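Field reference: sequence -> structure
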Amino acid sequence: MDIFEQMGALGLMGLPIAEEYGGAGADYTSYCLALEEITRACASTGLGYEAHISLGCMPIYLFGSEEQKQKYLAMLCSGKVWALSV
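Structure field:
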């Protein structure tokens, strides 16, 4: 969890999420490059990161209501709350 909190402080936990929801506002290619580099160092951390973004954050970002985006995305992008624990 410490690593994910540190990645949140660096803005990685919400890399492809718009800044208005607490993300970094980067494009999906940047997210894929970050994922590749994280996975190069530790595959299990990369898998957790991918699950957080792709399975946790992106469905809310793409299909959630405005209320859901405001409620969940900022805390998920911070890295203090992990997508699988919400």
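Note: Residues 2-81 form a domain with the Butyryl-Coa Dehydrogenase, subunit A; domain 1 fold (CATH 1.10.540.10).
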